[in-house]
């Protein structure tokens, strides 16, 4: 018998972020699934239709491929629904964060630059922008 339970959790409602990281998020795609999204920007206020946040379009769900900690930093790996990584923020392909030291961990992240169909985001940035939906 199989059943699932889906819970919507807003990132600002997570009180113990370390506990959530260790007990929930690092188990993504192992024994639970996580999806995330953020509301699109209101184009009426800005005058920009389909405005993006650091290259990401709102109202599109992403699953979390992996949550991984490397060299004291926590990252989430997310798929790009169009296969061309629209993410333009910190840790996006070719951004200044990818120093020689960090380029060496790309294989550990399971990531490569270019049209790999996924992108990397530091977890602290991710939490500010996303709502999480976990399914156990």
- How many DSSP H or I helices? 5
Fourth-tier CATH superfamily name: Cysteine proteinases
Q: Tell me the major beta sheet.
A: 4 strands, antiparallel
Q: Largest beta sheet: what is the strand line-up?
A: 1-9-2-5
Order of helices and strands: EHEHEEEEEHHEHE
Oligomeric assembly: single chain
CATH topology: Cathepsin B, Chain A
CATH architecture: Alpha-Beta Complex
Q: Could you name the ranges where pLDDT drops below 50 across 5 or more consecutive residues? A: 128-136
What is the domain tally?
1
For the termini, the CA-CA separation is 14 Å
What is the number of beta strands? 9
Helix-strand makeup class: alpha+beta
Strand content: 25-35%
Shape: globular
CATH class: Alpha Beta
Per-chain topology:
Elements: E1 6-10, H1 17-23, E2 33-37, H2 43-46, E3 52-53, E4 56-57, E5 62-63, E6 66-70, E7 73-79, H3 100-103, H4 106-109, E8 118-122, H5 123-129, E9 131-135
Antiparallel strand pairs: 1-9, 2-5, 2-9, 3-4, 6-7, 7-8
